[in-house]
Every structure is written in C-alpha cells, then in structure tokens.
Amino acid sequence: MRPRLLALTVAALTLFVASNVAVAQERSNECGERAESILRALYPQAEKVSDTDFSIEGATARLSTDSYLGMSPYAMVCRQWPAQPEHLLVALPLLTDEGDHYATGDLVVAVLRHDTLSPVAQYRIDGLIDDDAISLSMLDIDTAPYRLVEGRLAFGVRMLHRGASRVNPFYQTGFVLFNLKDTTLRPLLLNLEVERHTGEWDGICNGTFSSLTRTLAVGKPNQHRGADILITTKRNSSEAKADENGDCNEEEVENTTSRSKLQYDGQRYSVPAGMRMWE
Predict the structure, then answer these.
(1) How far apart are CA 85 and CA 42, in angstroms?
(2) Fewer Cβ atoms within 10 A, N terminus or C terminus of the chain?
(3) 4 by DSSP, 3-state: which?
(4) Strand ranges (DSSP E) for the chain?
C-alpha cells in the first residue's frame, strides 16, 4: 500500500467518518417549518435576534437552516417518537457563551404533543456543553426500544464530538437516556461514552490508531427493579509504519470484546468511571 493521505484511515477512523457523514445525510431534522413554533411552545418569551437565533434568559437557542443532522450542530433537533407517535421529542442546546473556537451551555430535552405542540415535559442538563478544541459535531435523538423501568420505553440523546487536529484525530459520542412518566421527564442514564476513535500520526503514514464502541441491549425485565442494560465493548488498535520501500503497512495490535451490565438503583443507572464521557 503506497503512502497517501488516506493512510490516516487505517482501522476504524475511515469507517467512523464515512458512517457519520452517511448518518447526517440519511437522518433528517424533523423540526422543519414548525421549528419556531416548537421553540416558542417551550419558551414563549424567546426573542428573535436573527433568522436562526433566539435569546432566552441570557442564552442563545438556534434553529437549523438545513434538514440534515450535523449541518448546524448547536441547532435544535426534533424527532417524532415512532413507538408513541403522538409525542414529539426535542433536543435543544442553550448556549451561554460562544466564540470562534469554543461554546458553553446547557442541553434541554423536551417532549411535546406532536399535533398541537403542547409541552408535556422537559429536563435541562446544566453545563453539558463545554467545547473548545473538541466540540459538538452532531446531536441526534435515539428512539430504539429501550424498555427499562416499569415497562415504559425510554429514549436517548447522542452527542457526537470531534477534535480539530488533523494529526491527532479524535471522535467521541456520549449518550443519555430519558424516562417519561406522565408529565415528568428525568435522565435514567448520564455520561456514557458509546464511541471513541483516536489517532496520532505524522500526516503521511506512521502512527497509531485506536477505537472503542459500546452497544447497548436490554436485559430481562425484573419485577423488583428496572431491566439491566447489557453492554458489549469492542476495542481495536493498530499501528502503521512505512518500510524502506516507502510502503505503508498496518498491523493490528489489539482486538478485544468484553461484556458488562449496568443496574438500576431506583433512580438511574450508575456509569462506572471507565465508561464515562465527561468527568
């Protein structure tokens, strides 16, 4: 294999970038033409300051001008809940500060009636956005069937981050699970890292690369507590070196799979330190 820029993409990095571009293109933001109405249903006092930005209690809320996810990473995201189509799920960053290479703020997650936009419940995670060299690149709502507590379906929010360095590529995804009970919304799972891809290379060939992915499954229901969350963790690392002929060769260093579970403590699922995205 002759050295070229794409030597960077040995192991999982190419697949990760390509798959996330595909996700951004295939998954549309369902706020659509109702975006401003959705925002005002949650915050009637919102003051419009530009075509996309609104001021809310000293913070900035943003609407997307593109239907694809990831085109405007700090914009509000909406998705109709397939299992409960009468509900609309919303993830809304509220930026308290923003510059050319940084952003700070909170994340509001809300449930509204899909047809009338009447608010049902919402929850605000303070300080969740704290971006500089590593920043939010895409926000998404996960509606996989997580039936965890008292037979109710939970839904998730995924936050994809990426680093700015070309020679030290970094991609990471954090995951939060929410439980809706009547008009109360609360997090069941916070701070779980479900994906990380890193590398360090010379920009031509020589370097090391590693990836971690976690997939979640729901265990058997338990009458005394919520179902366990079963986690499969896959780790892969590789090393690329140029030989005397100028060929770039890659060697796998690690390829392991491990399994673990998270248990419900009556309030939420506690995430071990080694699985957390944010400390």
Answers:
(1) 19
(2) C
(3) coil
(4) 47-48, 53-56, 59-62, 77-80, 87-98, 103-113, 119-131, 134-149, 152-163, 170-181, 184-201, 207-218, 229-242, 248-262
Place of tokens 């699985």: 275
For residues 184 and 196, the answer to whether their CB atoms sit within 8 Å is: no
Q: What is the pLDDT along the chain (279 residues), one digit of tens a residue?
A: 333 333 444 444 444 444 444 444 457 899 999 999 999 999 999 999 999 999 999 999 999 988 888 889 999 999 999 999 999 999 999 999 998 889 999 999 999 999 999 999 999 999 999 999 899 999 999 999 999 999 899 999 999 999 989 999 999 999 999 999 999 999 999 989 999 999 999 999 999 999 999 999 999 988 778 999 999 999 999 999 999 988 999 999 999 999 999 999 999 999 999 999 865
How much is the pTM? Answer: 0.89
**81 to 53, 84, 153: CA distances (angstroms):** 26, 5, 10
DSSP secondary structure code for residue 8 in this structure: G
Tell me the CA distances in angstroms from 227 to 148, 188, 248, 263, 273, one per residue in order.
5, 12, 47, 7, 21
Listing DSSP states for 136-161 in one string gives EEEEEEEEEEEEEETTEEEEEEEEEE
169 alpha carbon, distance to own chain's centre: 18
d(CA 130, CA 19): 25
Look at residue 258 and give its three-state secondary structure.
strand
**Angle CA(166)–CA(169)–CA(170) in degrees, nearest 5?**
140
3-state secondary structure of 24: helix
Q: What is the DSSP string of 160-199?
A: EEEES-SSS-EEEEEEEEEEEETTEEEEEEEEEEEEEEEE
Distance CA 277, CA 136 (A): 13
